[in-house]
């Protein structure tokens, strides 16, 4: 049998019937988490370790004249204050553009920018010391509005670039002028979306232990241990092999710990490097909110046109992202927004321009959906408006234009398979009672409480965009007692891939009992499997696990075939038993013992490099993503027109994300994302003062939903549109349900009140002023 | 573990006399009741104190009693005890409704009614119902006992009529019959949240005539307030939509809200009108 990854992937994609896959098996971590036994970074702190905090800038924009560390050092219990001058390697840590220092150097560019690390023995002294790091500054004017920043060159956030536009993207398809000339209806609007704070339960922390195994070991709240390793090595000027990074259980990431995690890890490592003792660096909640990057805030101008018979003809879109003080992952976020700007529809003519703009605010960063919720909010509002102009039902109009197998996307990529969105929306409309409710609520649109129903559809490319390399890997070892240990760089931040789907795939492919499988996750001791972001923990992360398991499986099968002298087809290993021509012959444990004694290699790796195409960056044409996950969500709301309060009553999801490996795990991801999307749409907002300081950096004033705000989330419709390279055909799920939520709720609110919503969040005050305006 | 640990003197007296003596003698001391506001404020530095006098062990500060013509609530009574009390449910339903919406179950099991009043937040949720009931506050101090109507208790933003060494001992509400009541709290989410605006209304009618009415408002002025002018306008009038709307209009003129992270002053004024009207209608079972 073959050890070739593609053959293995293909074999398991089209296997007949699964034993463990497709079942809601219990997560490996649920009991420990319920009992409080699961360990997070801070739980590894021990008596005698040192503590560290980050001193931040309290001005939005200034040149640093000097940083006097003496006042902080005079505080009893403070041992060290580290600035950029103490970085032995490189201080430059920008992900997309080399524009960001680990510790401020030359200038500070936002209120909250890390200036120095204070190290000491007790938290009280640290709390005082971070206040005492007060550099001498030459103040500079602060740019807080991206539209203003784009136009200005007299004030530059980064002088060296000569412009406040950090990055541009472009798609040119067909001829938009021609497209609009053929359109019978054209609608145009400006949409605005706002920042969102991740507000994970566990704020950032990293524990750096020098000299453990003769290198520096860092436990961190991090979504990509291997990236942390790379950055720590660079900052300390060490070879990567001298750095070990481990992500224990993480209390939520949502992308925030993909951006901030490696930096927190590097700051802790820097402190341990200088003190030569274990150091726990931690962010308080306020530190966390002030320092780490946020969901993109955007201004989107969107013009679209369609023919009388309901064919989408052209779109002309300008996307402006307020990227804050540093590009961080802004360019990647902007690319994703740009390439998803059409929504999951066929459009012959398109012109998209994206701008990533520097301001003196907290940087824009990764957050579940990654540039997509904002652009789908605009695109899906436009679809509703076009349908209205055409006198068509919004679902009907969407179905007419929706991507199907064989369709060409916005970037001229032909999608040959795994496009289940049409079926998902069709089923969803019937399931949610759309056809009746949409008419009924409109007729009833009187009185104080008004109901509305809205729909939004979204697509989300799996893996990295364009030709950016992406791969999966894992290392696997079957011990002599039949237990299986798998090493993966994928982390467990609550999403459940290492604790559920990874185990299921191993048990399925090896044919061993599920309880024999142990996944060691989140460590640089495992092969680099890429980050746990972009909904890839299973969809890409598990490919390596599948391949590694597939290799051992085929070795065992070849061995058994020889041993029993039967053709391969006569060998079956399933559910912990070996069958030869249908007869049970031995248990899994007996098989392993035998294999060990007969020279079968029961260790393997599973490297797989994802095949990609080419992409022309100047006109945004070509291969954008290897596959797309799709989701459609129907939302019902009730608007209190007296107060402007929106209650989301019911949410109906339909997901086309390939094979569902663990339905319960997928359900928890959908529910979590719906609630996080609801919070973003209705109540969450960061408020900046004239200094660009976040005023509501606490849980009193940054409000997220509680259980009382959670609507009925109905059972999800699954359309299993298998992806050829996905593990057993699975695509990404984690981000999916958040992406259409702003659009779905906004479309429902617009339906309820009869006014188009173009700006988020839909606070009672915002909705009330819309209704009040209409009454006048 | 990682936030500032309070370095502060701590006393836990057994008697009221002891507590008063401590508050008088120990420099810069403050009363600690549930601590759900005070400890947070001390940590963030919004409030400073050198010593805390924990009144949690003083038995006479606890408990809810029906004394026939009046209800007595010990100042250190926990909010959750109010929620679970039959006396409160029967006699002061307006208060019960307001307290039910406060904080979380965990917070309500620590926080006290007296603490909520003495902390004097404009958004204190026990204040509007107690203002409407015209509760009397029994205050004890080095110079003895005095009674302050709750309507005179809030003197200015976050200030109350307590002199040095004084402790709020109990809250007394005289029983009276109201034909209707209503409490409405508007926040940024459905529960466990500070109010944007809150309204408490008590009403009593004879036939179609409004004999008496009380309207109290939270989060729309430097202190919780009564809308006296609106009440005065309503008293003795025949109930009608026009009359209620006019009263709500007057209430809107009586408030002085600010813009803050929760809402704008404009929206708060609008909501004073809407919610006062709504609360009046509910109290009068009028729609």
Structural overview:
- The complex is a heterodimer of chains A (776) and B (287).
- Chain A is of the alpha+beta class and 776 residues long.
- Chain A has three domains: 5-38 and 471-609, 2-Layer Sandwich (Aldehyde Oxidoreductase, domain 4); 41-140 and 204-282, Aldehyde Oxidoreductase, domain 3 (Alpha-Beta Complex); 370-465 and 625-775, 2-Layer Sandwich (Aldehyde Oxidoreductase, domain 4).
- The mean pLDDT of chain A is 97.
- Chain B is 33% helix and 26% strand.
- In chain B, the strands form four sheets. Chain B has a five-stranded antiparallel beta sheet with strand order 4-5-10-6-7. In chain B, strands 11-12-13-14 form a four-stranded antiparallel beta sheet, with helices on both faces.
- The radius of gyration of chain B is 19 Å and the shape is globular.
- Classes of the chains: A alpha+beta (776), B alpha+beta (287).
- The A-B interface holds A 42, 51, 122-124, 127, 282, 284, 642-643, 645, 683, 687, 695-696, 700-701, 703-706, 708-709, 763-765, 768-769, 772 and B 1-5, 7, 186, 188-194, 196, 261-264, 267, 270-271, 274-275, 278.
Strand segment tally of chain B: 14
Strand content of chain A: 15-25%
Q: Tell me the helix content of chain A.
A: 25-40%
Structural class of chain A: alpha+beta
Shape of chain B: globular
Low-confidence stretches of chain A: none
Reading the helices and strands of chain B in chain order gives EHEHEEEHHHHHHEEEEEEEEEHHH
The N- and C-terminal alpha carbons of chain A lie at a distance of 75 Å
The number of helical segments of chain A is 21
Helix-and-strand structural type of chain B = alpha+beta
Gross CATH architecture of the largest domain in chain A:
2-Layer Sandwich
How far apart the termini of chain B lie comes to 54 Å
CATH class of the largest domain in chain B: Alpha Beta
Give the full name of the CATH homologous superfamily of the largest domain in chain A: Aldehyde oxidase/xanthine dehydrogenase, molybdopterin binding domain
The CATH architecture of the largest domain in chain B can be named as 2-Layer Sandwich
Characterize the largest beta sheet of chain B: strand count, sense, and whether it forms a barrel. Answer: 5 strands, antiparallel
Return the CATH topology of the largest domain in chain B: Uridine Diphospho-n-acetylenolpyruvylglucosamine Reductase, domain 3
Low-confidence spans of chain B: none
